[in-house]
Amino acid sequence: MEKLVSRIEKLIVPSKGTWGIVLEDLNSGEKWEHNEQELFYAASVIKLPIMASVYSAVERGDLALTDLIILDEQDYVGGSGVIQHFTPGSSLPLKDIIMLMIIQSDNTATNLLIDLVGVESIQNTMKEVGMVYSTFLNKLMLSKPNPKGANCIAAVDISVLLHGMAIGGLVSNKASDQMVDVMKKQQVRDCLPEKLPSPYSDFDHGKAPWELANKTGWIPGTRHDVGIFYVGDREFVATVLSKDEDDLISKRILSQIGEEIYNYLQ
After folding, report:
1. Parts of the chain with a pLDDT under 70
2. How far is the C-alpha of 259 from the C-alpha of 21, rounded, in Å?
3. Contacts of 113 (CB under 8 A, 6+ apart)
4. For position 198, what pLDDT does the model report?
5. Counting beta carbons within 10 angstroms of the beta carbon of residue 29, is it exposed (0 to 12), middle (13 to 18) or buried (19 or more)?
6. If you ran DSSP here, which 8-state letter would residue 191 be given?
7. Per-residue b or e along 137-169, where b marks 16 or more CB atoms closer than 10 Å to that residue's CB
8. Residues 233, 254 contacting (CB under 8 angstroms)
């Protein structure tokens, strides 16, 4: 993994921004950390512990993935996502609300889930997972930004969450598998997987040559992509957070990092 680390260091050293990175090869057990405790504005990566909290409620029997959520126009918020354009009064099963929160980074879906389980429940889930430095305080797209303080994440915390998910230890083995399956359906693929070959280009008995269970986060000046790479029989957790860098440059560096990881796993 030394060569991979060297290549990634060459990508981030010229950057004017700050990078928080944790890479973990789940096959060899090797790990590399860089500014792993540095706090970054969470953006939409905060949706991962929110998802974990919802699945925890399902595991306890407080909720069911088939529960219907009625859409109220008062809950609609802007930014990413499609629910804001749905007909008020429509209903969607909880499973689909989770799906939209993750694969389209739907902000309305996110706020619906926060209301459903509660801020305190999400905070407790983060503690139970082992997220030491990260904070969750607010819903998304509020008229007064961050009234209680910012939602923040550290690379080491997100890596702990992803590691647990990858090995089946986040909430439960079943819940971990379900969360990975949701993330593999991600529609936002313009960062870590941007330079990877088409997953449809080289099927092996119907199986794609690679899969990535990932979640991005972006606001101007802040760009993240985190996830679990599946390449052949290799599994690799990557948490890459950035701040104070030009948006196009951070996107390019993230795509180059993803390419280096993929080549390493080949």
Report:
1. 202-207
2. 15
3. 50, 51, 54, 97, 98, 101
4. 85
5. exposed
6. S
7. bbbbbeeeeeeeeebbbbbbbbbbbbbbbbeee
8. no
Q: How many residues does the chain have?
A: 266
Question: Considering the chain, what percentage of its residues have pLDDT values greater than 70?
Answer: 97
Q: What pLDDT is attached to residue 143?
A: 74
At 75, is the secondary structure helix, strand, or coil? helix
Residue 34 sits at φ, ψ, to 5 deg, of: -140, 120
Angle in degrees, 0-180, between the axes of helices 155-167 and 173-184, rounded to the nearest 10: 110
What is the phi-psi region of residue 130: left when phi exceeds 0, alpha when psi lies from -120 to 50, beta otherwise?
left
Per-residue pLDDT of 64-111, as tens digits, reads 999 999 999 999 999 999 999 999 999 999 999 999 999 999 999 999
The pLDDT of residue 206: 62
**Buried residues in 232-244 as b, exposed as e (16+ CB within 10 A):** eebbbbbbbbbbe
Residue 121 CB contacts under 8 Å (≥ 6 apart), including other chains: 53, 56, 57
Tell me which residue of 11, 1, 70, 2 sits closest to 195, measured CA to CA.
Answer: 11
CA–CA–CA angle 199, 181, 224 (5° rounding):
75
Question: Is 230 exposed, middle or buried, given 0-12, 13-18 or 19+ CB atoms closer than 10 A?
Answer: buried
Which residue type sits at 109?
Answer: A
Distance of CA 73 to the CA centre of its chain: 27
Helices (H), the chain: 2-12, 47-60, 94-103, 107-117, 119-129, 155-167, 173-184, 247-265
